[in-house]
Amino acid sequence: MLSRSATKYYDPEAVLTDEQITALVEIGTSAPTSFNFQNWRFVAVRSPEAKERLRPIAWNQAISYEAAVTFIIIGQLADASTVPAVFGPMVKAGYMPADQLPEAEKGARGIYDDNPQQQRDEAMRSATFGAAAIIYAARSMGWGSTPMIGFDPAAARKEYNFANNEIPVMLLAVGPMRDGNWPSKPRRPVLDVLSFR
Ligand SMILES: Cc1cc2nc3c(=O)[nH]c(=O)nc-3n(C[C@H](O)[C@H](O)[C@H](O)COP(=O)(O)O)c2cc1C
């Protein structure tokens, strides 16, 4: 995990199969989310045609079209009214008694109802956790990854048919690398950013 770095140079000939991409996103969706909202969506841009359309949206960053796949990582505003739907499978599986559902929904409403900032923060948090899981899953496969904020959010919204409750969180390029990438960059000393109490 400590060997990860943001990849600049991808092997432009490399291809990941749809099964490999699906496996990465499955790991992404194993990430935690508040109330298990799973308030995210992932678009895998991997065909030459789709990459060509992404290219101007991603400010012509070569990473976006040289990587085997670039994910559009989309967050969905947290919505407490979805609690029964997201908890349903847990009730069905017998983990959670059905009579706890109203209490859970009430808790979620207290946090998110009439609080657009919190709804949006949750979209960012969930999607970022999902992206982070994909980044380390890719690393474990020997592939590079690059989170990217260098893109046009309005153009992405249009191209990838965002619903009103969806926000663009980041692009995430993933794929086999070519030579020339930097190794991990130095970090601030851990004890400068960690305190014990
Ligand atoms: C939210 C976010 C946005 C980023 N956007 C870009 C980008 O648009 N283009 C790019 O080349 N790198 C981008 N990066 C990569 C960072 O520059 C890189 O992660 C940082 O310099 C630390 O380097 P490291 O990841 O190799 O440790 C982004 C990283 C993050 C977390």
From TrEMBL:
Keywords: Oxidoreductase. It comes from the Bacteria. InterPro entries: Nitroreductase, Nitroreductase-like. Residues 3-175 form the Nitroreductase domain. PANTHER family: NAD(P)H NITROREDUCTASE YDGI-RELATED. Belongs to the nitroreductase family. This is Nitroreductase family protein.
